[in-house]
Structure formats: structure tokens, C-alpha cells
UniProtKB/TrEMBL annotation:
Native organism taxonomy: Eukaryota, Viridiplantae, Streptophyta, Embryophyta, Tracheophyta
Organism encoding this protein: Abeliophyllum distichum
Keyword tags: Glycoprotein, GPI-anchor, Lipoprotein, Membrane, Signal, Transmembrane, Transmembrane helix
Keyword Lipid metabolism (UniProt): no
Protein's name in the database: COBRA-like protein
GO CC term (a single one): side of membrane
Signal sequence range: 1-34
Membrane-crossing segments per the record: 433-454
Source species, domain of life: Eukaryota
């Protein structure tokens, strides 16, 4: 009789353990959202180098490195924010500026600080800034290229003079609560960590100096934090099937003119031109062409031709957004035949090889001054290219959707693929053919049964 309470206790314990495992799995799912299997080490690192001490603070060079292979920051650019640990103020800046000065009324005379806010936000200066306000790698309007696409422009920097701070590496307090917007949400920054001092080589390359103090901040990207809904989708077609597999319905949102009027432009409306011109006045909100998927970007993969030893694919990227041009766009695609890619037409190509020696991931982007700018929706709102693959006899097949990509990214965001059972199929694998063969088999079996019965 005494074992029943223990049994009930163990049942409660098992129930609590199950709930705890479920809770941890949910937490792990949310943490892994910022992990990108194609770019596991991709991040934005912010490095502070204290280069000299002043009477009540220090002068530091802040450098932002975009170590992400294919995710970049486009106009209107990045915004970097933090909170001071004590009562620090920004006395002056070069190569950047804060968006607000704050209350500096307690300072007298002409030496008014650049910013007195407890939580300043810094932006990059625009191109064409006077040289006496610049430093190296500044003044690009906040645009930051991806590391593979343009490593020279994947770095930006500004110089800041901080007052009312410590004057040695023992009294300085590191800033905290770093935020990075690019230009919206999406990045989560960790705490500042003191690291080994950076070293600098003089222009004549005969002397090496080093920072007096250095700390790093690492920021990771999450597509879910950047935008709750997807931003792109994929459609498919092939030469061996007349079916065009469109993007799934409501991929990036559903068209609902009652709840959200004016969020899309219907080209079938007789007043669409006037509606578009009037809506351009409010450029803070996105405006896309009315479609079943409501995505601003659609990537179309078309299996175009089949040769004896090669096969060809045509890729078309269409911009449905009437309020945005995509500068320095890029596309990342996964397909097992990229190891045998022979030629690309009008696109740049770089193999990413995220899985050591397995080459199944390619990064594609436009040629500078030719098609590196994806224009807003309209006649010029698309770019396209063709890829020529050599056939690998052991793996090549048009059957079961093998010719279509496994995954596609646009500007670093994962695009929604159609369901596998909707892929264009080979004529020999037609469902009607399967039904016909099944019916024929049934007829043959019935005839044999009747023949045996009469005999």
C-alpha cells in the first residue's frame, strides 16, 4: 500500500521533466534562429581601439567589420547605439555623427560636446563629406558590403573623442547595451569584451604601433527578428513540363484591402498609375505589386535546355517593390551540381563550400555598372542570367525534382520554396500515366481471373 504515493510522485516528476524538456527545446529553437548553416561564422564585429588618453577621457577609433559572406547592409545604412557606463559624453567625432545631441546645457563656453546623451546613436557620414571630417573607411552613407562580394567595402570606421571617462585601462568603463540596426532590427549584439590590443602598421611599413586598449562587440543576425514574414519566394518551371509552379499563396502575407488598404498596387485597376504616384509620397512603408504571394522579391528557376553532356538553367530575379532599389544584391543557391558549374552568363560567381570539400553552394551577384542594381518594380525591375552545368553521370537526373535548387537566399534572407510534390515532373512520371498503368494492370488481372474461372 505504501508504494502508491511514490508512484504518483514519480508520475509528477516525469510530467515535470517532460515539460522542462519541451521548454528547453523551445528555447533552443529560438537561439538557433540566428545560426546560419551556410555561414556559421558570419557576424558583424565592432572593434574599439583606444589610441590615446586625454585629460578626462580618451580618443578611440571604432571599426565595424562585416564578416558575413553574403549578407550586407544597404541604404539608408547602419545605426550603431550603446549606453555609457558612467557619465561619459562625446566631445567630437570624425567619420560619423550622432543623430541627436542631447542636453548639453551644463557645459559653458564654446566647447559644447558633440553629444551628451546617455544612449547615443551613431550613423555614417555621406559620400562627399569634407576631408577634414573624414577618416579611413568612412563616409559611405552606412552602406556595408558583404565579405565575399566586396571585402574592401565590408569595413567602416569612425573616430570618437570621449570626455568624463577614465584615463587609463584600469579606470575606463566599457559601454554596454549595444544595438545595431541595418537599418531596421535583426541584429542582436553581445556585451563588450576586452581583447588583445590591435596593432597598426605605419604607411611606410617600417614601424608597428598598437592600441592602448581594445574591446570587441559581436552582433549576430536573425531573419525572424528582422521581419516576421518572409521577404522572398521561389517559382519553378522546366522545358519538359508546361506547368509553372508559382510561389505558394500568402508566402509573404495575404492581400487584404479591408484591413490594410493601399499596401499593394493592382495593375488590373484602371487607376493603378495615379494610385502609385500618390503612394510614393509616403516612402516609409513598403509597397508591392498585388500578387498571390505578396513578396517583394521572386526568384524564378527555369530548367531551360538539355544537351548530351551539359544542361542549362535560367535564373530571373524580379522586384515587386515599388519603393526600393536593391543595390549590390546577391543570390545564394544550393544544388548538388554546382560542383560541375561550367559557365555563368552576366552574373559573378563564387563557391561558398560551407561543408568543407562539398561544393554545392554558390553565391551569385551582378556585374558592377551593368546589373548590380535591381531596380524597383516596373519594366526594369528584374535581372537574369543563365548557368551551364556539366552532367555528372552518377548523379544527374531530371527525375524527382533533382534539377531544382534545394535552398535559395536573396540578400541573406531564406526564400520560401514551393512544396516538393508540386515540382514539375517528367512526362514519364505523370500521375495520369500512373493511373493508366494501374487501370491496365487491373484489367489484365481481371481477365486472367475470368479465364481461370471458366477453365
Amino acid at each position: 500500500m505504501g508504494f502508491f504515493p511514490k508512484a504518483r510522485a514519480s508520475t509528477k516528476l516525469r510530467g515535470f521533466t517532460s515539460f522542462l524538456v519541451f521548454l528547453l527545446s523551445c528555447l533552443n529553437f529560438s537561439f538557433s534562429d540566428a545560426y546560419d548553416v551556410l555561414d556559421p561564422r558570419g557576424n558583424i564585429t565592432i572593434k574599439w581601439d583606444v589610441i590615446s588618453w586625454t585629460s578626462d577621457g580618451y580618443i578611440a577609433v571604432v571599426t565595424v567589420f562585416n564578416f558575413q559572406k553574403y549578407r550586407h547592409i544597404q541604404a539608408p545604412g547602419w545605426k550603431l547605439g550603446w549606453s555609457w557606463a558612467k557619465k561619459e559624453v562625446i566631445l567630437s567625432m570624425y567619420g560619423g555623427q550622432t543623430i541627436e545631441q542631447g542636453d548639453c546645457s551644463k557645459f559653458k563656453g564654446n566647447n559644447i560636446p558633440h553629444c551628451c546623451k546617455k544612449d547615443p546613436t551613431v550613423v555614417d557620414l555621406l559620400p562627399g563629406t569634407p576631408y577634414n571630417q573624414q577618416i579611413a573607411n568612412c563616409c559611405r552613407g552606412g552602406v556595408l558590403s558583404s565579405w565575399v562580394q566586396d571585402p574592401e567595402n565590408a569595413v567602416t570606421a569612425f573616430q570618437v573623442t570621449v570626455g568624463q571617462a577614465g584615463t587609463s585601462n584600469k579606470t575606463v568603463r566599457l559601454p554596454k547595451n549595444f544595438t545595431l540596426k541595418a537599418p531596421g532590427p535583426g541584429y542582436t549584439c553581445g556585451p563588450a569584451e576586452i581583447v588583445k590590443q590591435s596593432k597598426f602598421i605605419t604607411p611606410d611599413k617600417r614601424r608597428v604601433t598598437q592600441a592602448l586598449m581594445t574591446w570587441n562587440v559581436t552582433c549576430m543576425y536573425s531573419q525572424f527578428l528582422a521581419q516576421k514574414a518572409p521577404t522572398c519566394c521561389v517559382s519553378l518551371s522546366s522545358f519538359y513540363n508546361n506547368t509553372i509552379v508559382n510561389c505558394p499563396a500568402c508566402t509573404c502575407g495575404c492581400r487584404n484591402s479591408l484591413i490594410q488598404p493601399g499596401t499593394c498596387v493592382d495593375l488590373d485597376s484602371p487607376h493603378w498609375a495615379s494610385a502609385l504616384s500618390s503612394s510614393r509620397k509616403n516612402s516609409d512603408t513598403p509597397l508591392v505589386r498585388c500578387t498571390s504571394h505578396m513578396c517583394p522579391i521572386r526568384v524564378h528557376w527555369h530548367v531551360k535546355l538539355n544537351y548530351k553532356e551539359y544542361w542549362r538553367v535560367k535564373i530571373t530575379i524580379t522586384n515587386f517593390n515599388y519603393r526600393m532599389n536593391y543595390t549590390q544584391w546577391n543570390l545564394v543557391a544550393q544544388h548538388p551540381n554546382f560542383d560541375n558549374l561550367t559557365q555563368t552568363f552576366s552574373f559573378n560567381y563564387k563557391s561558398l563550400t560551407p561543408y568543407a570539400s562539398i561544393n554545392d553552394t554558390a553565391m551569385l551577384w551582378g556585374i558592377k555598372f551593368y546589373n548590380d542594381l535591381l531596380m524597383e518594380a516596373g519594366p526594369s525591375g528584374s535581372v537574369q542570367s543563365e548557368l551551364l552545368f556539366r552532367k555528372e553521370k552518377k548523379t544527374f537526373s531530371f527525375d524527382k525534382g533533382w534539377a531544382f535548387p534545394r535552398r535559395i537566399y536573396f540578400n541573406g534572407d531564406d526564400c520560401v520554396m514551393p512544396p516538393p510534390d508540386a515540382y514539375p515532373y517528367l512526362p514519364s512520371a505523370s500521375p495520369h500515366m500512373v493511373i493508366s498503368m494501374s487501370s491496365l494492370l487491373t484489367t489484365i488481372l481481371a481477365s486472367l481471373f475470368l479465364l481461370l474461372a471458366y477453365n
